[in-house]
Design goal:
single chain, about 180 residues, mainly alpha, 2 domains, 11 helices
């Protein structure tokens, strides 16, 4: 995801006044957002200082595309395009995976499903978290089979209980956009 080589900056600097705002938004989602989402489940959980240059570049491109001054808050930039910063996008993608495992497990490969264990498979008795995913404490906190159940448990019940993926994604976006950047 090297935006320097793509010439994105030079095209946007020179011709941004000729491109309507709606087209700029489409350009963002076609060129930048799609590149961010590709493999985010793998790279999204690295140390924040490693992702910081990418986040800074995204913020810069959002300011450029929206023709906003340098001191515009990032929350405003992301909310006007109805998207999330990288860290929140990572959480959203992991939560969508957990939702698919919960409500549409037939669409998930067995290898991925086997990474996650429900508490009812471990406990014979009924507990408060009987139907939730088991957070495996003996594995790395960066592993997806630790992060997924942890994020799933932190979601409010009304979001977790939503069986429709589209509605679930909208609720999660709203929930994660409320977090501090």
């Amino acid at each position: 995801m090297n935006f320097k080589n793509a010439g994105t900056n030079s095209i946007l600097f020179c011709k941004k006044s000729a491109i309507p705002l709606t087209c700029r938004k489409h350009l963002y989602f076609a060129l930048i957002h799609s590149a961010l989402l590709y493999g985010i489940e793998i790279y999204g959980n690295v140390n924040k200082c490693l992702l910081n240059p990418l986040l800074v570049k995204c913020n810069f491109l959002l300011r450029l595309l929206q023709n906003k001054p340098r001191l515009t808050s990032t929350k405003t930039l992301y909310s006007s395009y109805e998207t999330l910063p990288i860290y929140s996008l990572y959480k959203l993608c992991i939560c969508k995976l957990m939702h698919s495992i919960t409500y549409n497990s037939d669409s998930i490969p067995v290898v991925i499903k086997n990474l996650f264990i429900l508490n009812n498979a471990i406990h014979c008795h009924h507990t408060r978290s009987f139907n939730l995913f088991h957070v495996q404490g003996l594995i790395s906190p960066e592993a997806i089979n630790f992060v997924g159940p942890s994020l799933w448990r932190k979601l409010p019940n009304f979001i977790r209980d939503c069986p429709n993926l589209y509605t679930f994604e909208k609720l999660c976006k709203t929930y994660f956009s409320g977090e501090t950047l």
